Amino acid sequence: MSSVKTEFVSDRMLYIVLRDRWCNIIVLNVPAPSEEKSDDSKDSFYAVLEQVFNHFLKYHLKIVLGDFNAKLGREDIFKLTIGNESLHQDSNDNGVRIVNCATSKNLFVKNTMFLH
Questions:
Q1: What pLDDT shows up at residue 20?
Q2: Which of 26, 68, 78, 105 is the most exposed place for a label (fewest CB within 10 A)?
Q3: Full domain range(s) for residue 19
Q4: C-alpha–C-alpha distance, residues 110 and 55, integer Å
């Protein structure tokens, strides 16, 4: 495996492309705005994340890492995306945003799938 490209998209986002034998692996590092930030700031962040995510071909392996400043609750509607092991009862605004983003891209939030 070798590094092909590293790009800073913004002060809050970067990605690295790793070339593997069968496909590229794209690792995105994306620390999201905190809960106290404005909705416009959060909307802008997720718009850029979606744009970067869509930039890569579907068959590439994409891994999104970062501090999303989110509380993911145990709402039944989110269980397919986040699992059963959340530490919180209710999701905050950032939690809902990351679940919506993950769901729209067929991704899963893995840190809430396992018992802590």
A1: 87
A2: 105
A3: 1-69
A4: 23
